[in-house]
């Protein structure tokens, strides 16, 4: 049986507040809240990064985020809240670029759904990242993490 789910989907230039998102998705049925916060780091592949610029067409990106949230609710029926948010525009080192917040009755489901959410965002949401470093600027394509996304099906 599925529980009522709060859903927050947002793509835009406003700063992200993961704590506020967690408060919004929490319900009295929530026994766990799992949060992933992606932040801008000062390096990538041996280069010093000065800042990033994210670009997106919000209606298209938000439609894909809604599809991901629906997939999360289908897989984990005990979720009571989901927030999927991504910034656009210029971001400085240390700023939050993406937040995935999942509230659930149980910790395992919250953790699994949160990990699933960020991996799906990286795989399919049309948001483009340009990196500015000492060597110039470059569009970053695909997942650049050293191990790649886990659990690809």
List keywords for this structure.
alpha+beta, Aldehyde Oxidoreductase, domain 3, 9 strands, elongated
Fold and architecture overview:
The structure is a single chain. The chain starts with 5 loop residues before the first strand and ends in a 13-residue tail after the last strand. Helix content is 29%, strand content 40%. It has three helices and nine strands. Residues 147-153 have low confidence and may be disordered. The strands form two sheets. Strands 3, 4, 6, 8 and 9 form a five-stranded antiparallel sheet that branches. Strands 1-5-7-2 form a four-stranded mixed sheet, with helices on both faces. It is α+β, with helices and mostly antiparallel strands and 153 residues long. It has one domain: Aldehyde Oxidoreductase, domain 3 (Alpha-Beta Complex), CATH 3.90.1170.
State the CATH topology: Aldehyde Oxidoreductase, domain 3
| CATH architecture grouping | Alpha-Beta Complex
Distance from first to last alpha carbon: 25 Å
Determine the fraction of residues in helical runs and give it as a percent range.
Answer: 25-40%
Described by strand count, sense and barrel closure, the largest sheet is: 5 strands, antiparallel
Count of domain modules:
1
- What's the name of the CATH homologous superfamily? Molybdopterin biosynthesis MoaE subunit
Strand content: 35-45%
Q: What is the count of DSSP helices, taking H or I runs of 4+ residues? A: 3
Order of helices and strands: EHEEEHEEEHEE
User: Looking at the structure, what is the overall shape?
Assistant: elongated
User: How many whole angstroms does the radius of gyration measure?
Assistant: 16 Å
- Low-confidence spans: pLDDT under 50, at least 5 residues? 147-153
Instruction: Please provide the count of β strands.
Output: 9
Output the CATH class name. Alpha Beta
Q: Find the structural class using helix and strand composition.
A: alpha+beta
Average pLDDT for all residues: 91
